[in-house]
C-alpha cells in the first residue's frame, strides 16, 4: 500500500474531476485524482471500433455551453458543424414518412397549433426558473408533484402533440419514461439549455463536434496533471473529519485536507464513508437515479442519405429509434448515422439477442433513410447501463418530488467532502458543460475554504 499526501483528493477522472484538479493546481494546491477505470474521461470516450472512430459517450457542443466552449478553445481543439443540409424526416402515428424543413414537425394544422401554444407556455415557465435553483420558484412544490406526462395531458387531449412535446425532455434528454419524472424536472432540463425551444432545436442543441473526438478534453486535462492522475484505483473507503480525509483504494492511501467526489451520484454508495454521511445525504442520494439510452452507431461506405437530399436528422415518438442524425466524422468519406433508443424501449431491446436487437434497430433506421440503412459496414451499440462505473445514460435525475425536496442540498459540501458532477449542474445539466461548471465550483469553494 503506497501512501501519499495532497491538499485535495479527487475521486473520478471525468470532465468534472479533471477540471477541478486543474483549477486547484492553478490556485497552488496539490491534488491526486483517483480513477476507477483504466482510462480517463468517464462518460466521454472516443474509440476506434472495427476501423471506425466512434463517440461512444458525449459528443455535441451547443452555443450556450460557455464553459465547455472555453475549455475546448483553451485546449486548442477544433470544432466542426453537424451536417444539416437537406430535409429532415418525421414518421407519424400511421407509419407514414414525411420530409420537412425547419423546427416544426409536419403534423396536422391543429396539432401544430397545440404544439406551438404549449411550447410558448413552456418557454414562459422556463424563463421564470433559475436553472441553478429551480426549487426556489414559487410553484416548485406544485410543479414537482405532477408528472411531465400528466401535465402535458392536462394541456391537450391531442396525443400526437403530447408525444412530440414530451420526448424533448423525456426520451431525448432525461431518458426516462415521461410518467417517471416531474414537470419541475422537465423545466430544469429545458432551463439548463436556456429555453424549451432551444432544447427542441436540433441545430442548436446538437450544433458542433470536436475534430478527433470530445474525449480529447479529459485526455488533455489529464496530461497537464501527469502523475497526479492514478488509473485503476476504485475508491473503497473515505474517512473524514475535522482533520481532513483519508481516501483508500486497493493500492493507495491518500491523505488530504479536502475530497471531491466527481462522479455520478448513484455511485456514492460504492464507497464506505467513515463516519457515515449525514442522514440528509443518505436520503437525498436514494432519490436520484440514472436514465437509460442506447446510442447506436451505424457506419456506411458513403453517406447515402445525402444523395436523397436528406440531412440525416430524423424524429419520431412512434419509432424504436426516436431520433437519429448524420454523425459522419470530420473529413471522413464514409457516412455515419447515430440513433438513440431510450428508457422502456432500451430495456425491452436488451431482452433480445444481439442479432435481433441489431435487426430491430436497423429496421427502425430504415424507416427514416430507406433500405440501405439496413447494411452498415460497422455497427455498434453504446451500452452505458452495463458500465460498472456509470450505470446508465446520460445522467441522473430526481424521482417525483425529489428535486424540490432535496435539490437545495445537492451541491452542499459535507465537512471536507465536496461534490461535482454534470448530474448536479444547473446550466449545462447532464452535459459536459455542466460537469466543467461543477468542477470549477467545487474547486473555488475549496480554494476559499483553504484560505479561511
Ligand atoms: P463522469 O461519469 O464522466 O466521470 C466520473 C468518473 O468517476 C468516471 O471516470 C468513473 O469511472 C469515476 N468513478 C466513479 N466511481 C469511482 C470510484 N469509486 N473511484 C474512482 N473513480 C470512480 N454531454 C454533452 O455535453 N453532449 C453530448 O452529446 C452528450 N451525449 C452523451 C451520450 C452518451 C451516450 C452519454 C453516456 C453521455 C452523454 N453526454 C453528453 C453527457 C456527458 O458525457 C456527461 O454529462 C459528462 O461527461 C459527465 O462528466 P462527469 O465528470 O460529471 O462524470
Automatic annotation (TrEMBL):
Q: Which residues bind FAD?
A: 35-36, 235
Q: Which Pfam families match?
A: Amino_oxidase (PF01593)
Question: What Gene Ontology terms describe what this protein does at the molecular function level?
Answer: oxidoreductase activity
Q: Does the keyword Oxidoreductase apply?
A: yes
Keywords (alphabetical) are:
Oxidoreductase
Where, in this chain's numbering, is substrate bound? 340
- State if Isomerase is listed as a keyword: no
Q: What residue stretches are annotated with the Amine oxidase domain?
A: 16-446
Q: Which domain of life is it from?
A: Bacteria
Q: Supply the Gene3D superfamilies for this chain.
A: FAD/NAD(P)-binding domain
Required cofactor names: FAD
Q: What does the sequence similarity comment in the record state about its family?
A: Belongs to the flavin monoamine oxidase family.
Official protein name in the record: Putrescine oxidase
Amino acid at each position: 500500500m503506497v501512501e501519499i499526501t495532497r491538499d485535495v483528493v479527487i475521486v473520478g477522472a471525468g470532465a468534472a474531476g479533471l477540471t477541478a484538479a486543474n483549477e486547484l493546481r492553478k490556485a497552488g494546491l496539490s491534488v491526486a485524482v483517483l480513477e476507477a477505470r483504466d482510462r480517463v474521461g468517464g462518460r466521454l470516450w472516443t474509440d476506434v471500433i472495427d476501423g471506425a472512430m466512434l463517440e461512444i459517450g458525449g459528443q455535441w457542443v451547443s452555443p450556450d455551453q460557455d464553459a465547455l466552449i472555453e475549455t475546448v478553445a483553451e485546449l486548442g481543439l477544433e470544432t466542426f458543424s453537424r451536417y444539416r443540409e437537406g430535409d429532415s424526416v418525421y414518421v407519424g402515428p400511421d407509419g407514414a414518412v414525411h420530409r420537412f424543413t425547419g423546427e416544426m414537425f409536419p403534423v396536422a394544422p391543429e396539432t401544430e397549433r397545440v404544439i406551438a401554444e404549449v411550447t410558448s407556455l413552456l418557454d414562459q415557465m422556463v424563463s421564470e426558473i433559475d436553472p441553478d435553483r429551480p426549487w426556489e420558484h414559487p410553484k416548485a412544490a406544485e410543479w414537482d408533484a405532477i408528472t411531465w406526462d400528466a401535465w402535458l395531458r392536462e394541456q391537450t387531449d391531442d396525443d400526437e402533440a403530447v408525444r412530440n412535446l414530451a420526448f424533448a425532455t423525456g426520451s431525448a434528454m432525461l431518458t426516462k419514461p415521461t410518467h417517471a419524472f416531474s414537470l419541475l424536472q422537465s423545466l430544469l432540463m429545458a432551463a439548463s439549455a436556456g429555453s424549451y425551444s432551444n432544447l427542441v432545436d436540433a441545430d442548436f442543441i446538437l450544433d458542433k463536434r470536436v475534430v478527433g473526438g470530445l474525449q480529447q478534453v479529459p485526455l488533455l486535462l489529464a496530461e497537464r496533471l501527469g502523475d497526479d492522475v492514478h488509473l485503476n484505483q476504485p475508491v473503497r473507503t473515505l474517512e473524514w473529519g475535522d482533520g481532513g480525509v483519508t481516501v483508500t483504494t486497493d493500492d493507495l492511501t491518500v491523505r488530504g485536507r479536502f475530497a471531491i467526489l466527481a462522479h455520478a451520484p448513484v455511485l456514492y454508495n460504492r464507497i464506505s464513508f467513515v463516519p457515515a454521511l449525514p442522514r440528509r445525504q443518505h436520503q437525498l442520494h436514494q432519490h436520484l437515479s440514472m436514465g437509460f439510452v442506447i446510442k447506436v452507431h451505424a457506419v456506411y461506405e458513403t453517406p447515402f442519405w445525402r444523395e436523397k437530399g436528406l440531412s440525416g436528422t430524423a424524429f419520431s415518438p412512434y419509432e424504436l429509434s426516436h431520433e437519429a442524425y448524420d454523425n459522419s466524422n470530420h473529413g471522413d468519406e464514409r457516412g455515419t448515422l447515430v440513433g438513440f433508443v431510450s428508457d422502456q424501449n432500451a430495456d425491452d431491446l436488451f431482452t433480445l439477442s444481439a442479432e435481433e436487437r441489431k435487426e430491430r434497430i436497423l429496421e427502425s433506421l430504415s424507416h427514416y433513410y430507406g433500405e440501405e440503412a439496413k447494411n452498415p459496414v460497422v455497427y455498434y451499440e453504446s451500452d452505458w447501463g452495463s458500465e460498472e462505473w456509470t450505470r446508465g445514460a446520460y445522467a441522473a435525475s430526481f424521482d417525483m418530488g425529489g428535486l424540490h425536496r432535496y435539490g437545495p442540498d445537492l451541491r452542499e459540501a459535507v465537512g471536507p467532502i465536496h461534490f461535482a458532477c454534470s448530474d448536479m449542474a444547473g446550466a449545462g445539466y447532464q452535459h459536459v458543460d455542466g460537469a466543467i461548471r461543477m468542477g470549477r465550483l467545487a474547486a473555488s469553494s475549496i480554494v476559499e475554504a483553504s484560505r479561511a
